[in-house]
Amino acid sequence: MSTSKEKTAYEKKMAARIEEWNAEIDKLQARAEQAGADAEIKYREELNELRSKRDALQEKMNHLKDQSGDAWDEMKAGVENAWGELKKSIDRARDRMR
């Protein structure tokens, strides 16, 4: 079971990560736009997927704040999993757009 301080620190850490990924998604969007219309169309679906995963992670974070005890630990595991998936997706998109 986590303490209130641990929960708060974790929530702040995850909020900072989400902000980092928001900035990275914005950079990828700018790259797609600079590459021209064809590239933007090609990457639009991928960028939409990234935003969807980011939104799902944010939703999990919102639910996490309301949890305590074992439920918090279970939700935290779900948040970590969602974060890992978002990170992989952003890394793949970054590699494709180079």
Structure description:
This is Coiled coil domain-containing protein. Keywords: Coiled coil. The chain is built from three helices and no strands. The chain is elongated. It has one domain. By secondary structure, it is an all-alpha fold. The relative contact order is 0.16.
Could you list some keywords that capture this structure?
mainly alpha, 3 helices, 90% helix, elongated, coiled coil, Coiled coil domain-containing protein
Give the SSE order as H and E letters: HHH
Total E-strand runs? 0
Residue share in helix: over 70%
Q: What's the overall average pLDDT, rounded?
A: 85
Number of domains: 1
Beta-strand share of residues:
under 5%
Specify Rg, calculated over alpha carbons: 16 Å
**Structural class estimated from helices and strands:** mainly alpha
Oligomeric state of the chains in view: single chain
> Which stretches are low in confidence, meaning pLDDT under 50 for 5 or more residues running?
none
- Main sheet overview: none
Number of helices: 3
N-C termini distance: 43 Å
- The gross shape turns out to be elongated
